[in-house]
Amino acid sequence: MPSTRLPILSMRQQICDALRGEIMAGEISFNQPVREQNLAKRFGVSRNSVRDALLQLSQEGVLIYSPNCGVRVSSPPTQKESKLYAKLRREIEIHSLEIAWSSWTKEDDGNLNRLQRILSVACEQQDLKAITETDLAMHRYWVSKASKELESVWLGITVRMLIAYSQLDNYMQCCLEHAAIVEAIACRDLSAAKKAVELNIRSK
Amino acid sequence: MPSTRLPILSMRQQICDALRGEIMAGEISFNQPVREQNLAKRFGVSRNSVRDALLQLSQEGVLIYSPNCGVRVSSPPTQKESKLYAKLRREIEIHSLEIAWSSWTKEDDGNLNRLQRILSVACEQQDLKAITETDLAMHRYWVSKASKELESVWLGITVRMLIAYSQLDNYMQCCLEHAAIVEAIACRDLSAAKKAVELNIRSK
DNA sequence: AACAATCATATTGTCGACAATTATACAATT
DNA sequence: AATTGTATAATTGTCGACAATATGATTGTT
Asked: How far apart are CA A39 and CA A37, in angstroms?
């Protein structure tokens, strides 16, 4: 239910978001080549637009690009890499919370609440793809508010970390953890918010 | 002086590297719009190839992209952001050194030595652009060897951190610090190498 | 049968042209 | 004078076609 965004998403962004979601949900197997032509036909656009999207996803680390050979879904991170990613993510998000804190508005609260409700429904229905997407969107919200430049760095790390998040042990816990974050923010309790975020970000 | 790479660089990569170098050396002022047409004419290629490069640089955080409005050079990071970037970089590079360590070869030593010589000359001549480029290439070497996926994350952070590195207080110190890193690696002293890298990566 | 060279096919890379959008300059209205 | 509306120019977004490259099959030679 995209309700608030005024800026119309570009074609590239739409394709990016769609593919990223599928890949993160594990719907495309690792090392399987992704063909431009197929996607162009599927989305009803030219190969050029697809290329743009694939290039962006390569830069994000979701896809691996080999010149003249196209792209493939990148392999999931090793355990050690996952731990590193989690650490980096925590540091970026904590920093972002601090930066965004001073300009946080009631509207931001509303937007987070809306995402939280979506997450809640997704957890009840055990819709893994929706959970992953909404989870991403929530965290992205405060990072994006803090800095657009940081956002792209953060996205690369987080997406890599969440690739093949497939088996989520406890859907309810995911929902509760995010509720805790949203509430801490709503109460303007920065240190509680930071702590809640830190708890939520961990390598499996 | 690109001397060693066997794989032919794609047009996009060439344009990316050229622009990234110029931006990092501060040759294009902040918030100045970058026009596709001009670049296409300058590099003697079609606008499409330029677009690919601009898109990639946007994803790296060097350029800021606004739909239908093109790109502009992104503003330099705040002091607080610089400190965060430095921290993230240290963690990624330390991790990379550990990972790359087991498969490190004499050829790698040779490649690093070659870069170190280039850096040395650049420092003597006080060629800031060459210094920045070579500095980047050296660090990139071990990160890239550890993981292609990590490399793209690392590049985004590092490039943002080095934007407008312009005033480098002490050229000789830069050269010496990197010499220490190379030597520690050559001696296969991991902990010394890690320490040398940590010392070298700092926010100004 | 094993290997090398050659050809055919599929896929990516590049290009120029046109459509859609945005920014700018200028006139019209209050 | 300030604001709104309109036409013009500049810029980005999208497309289809062709060139360059890689992949896979076929043939020819030993």
From this structure: 5
Pick the closest to residue A135 from A116, A150, A114 (CA basis).
A116
Instruction: Report the candidate in B81, B63, B31 with the shortest Cα–Cα distance to residue B204.
Output: B81
Joined tokens for residue A159: 């997406």
> Is the domain of A187 the same as that of A112?
yes
**Contact state of A56 with B60 under an 8 Å Cβ cutoff:** no
Contact between chains at B152 and A60 (C-beta distance less than 8 A): yes
Q: Min CA distance, B54 vs chain A (Å)? A: 11
B23-36 per-position pLDDT tens digit: 888 888 887 889 99
Task: Tell which of A27, A53, A73 closes a domain.
Answer: A73
* In contact, B196 and B181? CB cutoff 8 Å: yes
A38 and A55 in a single domain? The answer is yes
Across the interface, of B52, B148, B160, the residue whose CB is closest to A149 is B160
The total number of structural domains in chain A stands at 2
Q: Are residues B36 and B86 in the same domain?
A: no
Q: Which amino acid belongs to residue A195?
A: K
Domain shared by B108 and B63, yes or no: no
Q: Provide the domain limits for residue B178.
A: 79-200
Give which of B203, B13, B7, B200 is closest to B119, Cα–Cα: B200
The answer to whether the Cβ–Cβ distance between A60 and B59 falls below 8 Å is yes
High-pLDDT (> 70) share of chain B, %? 93
Q: Do A104 and A188 share a domain, yes or no? A: yes
Tokens describing residue B164: 């407008």
Q: Could you report the per-residue pLDDT of A145-177, keeping only the tens digit for each?
A: 999 889 989 999 999 998 866 666 678 899 999
Instruction: Give yes or no for CB of B49 within 7 Å of strand C.
Output: yes
B37 and B84 co-located in one domain = no
> Cβ of A161: how many Cβ atoms within 10 Å?
24
Q: Is the CB of B46 under 7 A from strand C?
A: yes
